[in-house]
Write a structure and sequence with these properties.
Helix content: 25-40%
Shape: globular
Order of helices and strands: HEHEHEHEEHHEHEHEHEHEHEH
Structural class: alpha/beta
Radius of gyration: 21 Å
Largest sheet: 6 strands, parallel
Distance between the termini: 38 Å
Number of helices: 12
Strand content: 5-15%
Strand order of the largest sheet: 8-7-6-9-10-11
Length: 321
């Protein structure tokens, strides 16, 4: 969206209010002029800090791309002539109260397409699709150092997500890691953060795998971009690195069961590598916000191995010598 806005009007100034984690991912993005940090972990104090940062500031337009109460409160704090948000049917947590303009009501779509509705309302084309996530030239040195340490072609394995219901299982990850090495000559790099679940998953995977994965948990979001960019393949449940891989045009096998993949799956790319455990056999379901627990257990190691075979036949690039 920010790339499209800048393309339509290079003179416009874009300020983005972000929490610290996402802010680190977007730092120095060429289409973002200013980032204002909102620290939700400070509780009520985070909103007070933001109010101080926004004092005596006024904007021409606010885009409320979120549907949660915290975004509504932030929208209230921002002084703007026009505040554009979701229609009442899709704005959860009474978010529609805080905006004075709404995009037209439509059925639930893929999240990215719903965001593009904001551009449509502004008369801006979303195409060509551009993310410009990097890595930047300054980050290439770290990337080269990392790949030299790995010393070989590798797959990035995303071990966990923000919700336990979206996670796959350590023993199955270990089996895939072994098969990647033995059948395809690919090493495995574990990527993600350092939450308790991720640390527990790392320990369980490393204990069960014959070929020990390389640990890159906690490398940070910008280094994650460099790791994904250098990988030959990404395997991920429904979480941020999956969509980073799509933005970098990196083949990604997505493991989706808890969330609706027609709403949150890989956007317009690598759908042939997606494993849909959300649907019942023969079900033709629409995009929706309905979550389905206990579906990730339906994804077997054989399911993933079949997708790896497709990747090998269709997407794998010859190794650079």
């Amino acid at each position: 969206i920010v790339n499209a806005l800048k393309r339509a009007n290079p003179a416009c100034k874009i300020t983005w209010i972000l929490q610290p984690g996402p802010a680190s991912l977007i730092a120095d993005h060429p289409s973002v002029d200013e980032i204002i940090i909102f620290d939700r972990k400070k509780g009520y104090g985070g909103f007070l800090d933001l109010r101080r940062k926004l004092a005596r500031r006024r904007f021409d337009l606010l885009l409320n791309l979120q549907v949660y109460l915290k975004a509504g409160i932030i929208t209230l704090l921002v002084e703007a002539d026009r505040k554009l948000g979701f229609d009442r049917s899709r704005a959860r947590d009474m978010n529609w109260i805080f905006t004075n303009l709404k995009i037209p009501r439509r059925p639930v779509q893929h999240v990215q397409d719903q965001y593009f509705e904001f551009l449509e309302a502004l008369g801006v084309s979303p195409t060509p699709l551009e993310w410009n996530l990097g890595p930047t030239e300054d980050e290439r040195a770290w990337q080269r150092e990392f790949t030299q340490k790995v010393d070989g072609e590798f797959a990035a394995i995303v071990v966990a997500t923000s919700k336990a219901e979206k996670d796959w299982f350590p023993d199955r990850w270990a089996a895939i890691i072994d098969q990647l090495q033995e059948q395809y000559g690919l090493k495995s790099v574990l990527v993600g953060g350092t939450t308790d679940r991720e640390i527990e998953a790392r320990a369980a995977i490393s204990a069960a795998a014959r070929h020990k994965p390389i640990d890159a948990l906690g490398s940070g979001l910008r280094n994650l971009v460099s790791i994904v960019d250098a990988s030959s393949l990404v395997i991920s449940p429904d979480t941020g690195p999956l969509h980073i891989a799509v933005a970098l045009n990196k083949p990604v096998i997505s493991l989706i069961g808890y969330t609706n993949p027609r709403r949150t799956g890989p956007y317009r790319k690598f759908r042939d590598l997606m494993i849909d455990a959300y649907a019942d056999p023969g079900e033709n379901y629409p995009p929706s916000m309905e979550n389905r627990p206990d579906r990730m257990q339906r994804i077997s190691t054989d399911d993933v191995l079949r997708k790896i075979a497709i990747w090998h036949a269709k997407y794998r690039q010859p190794a650079v010598k």
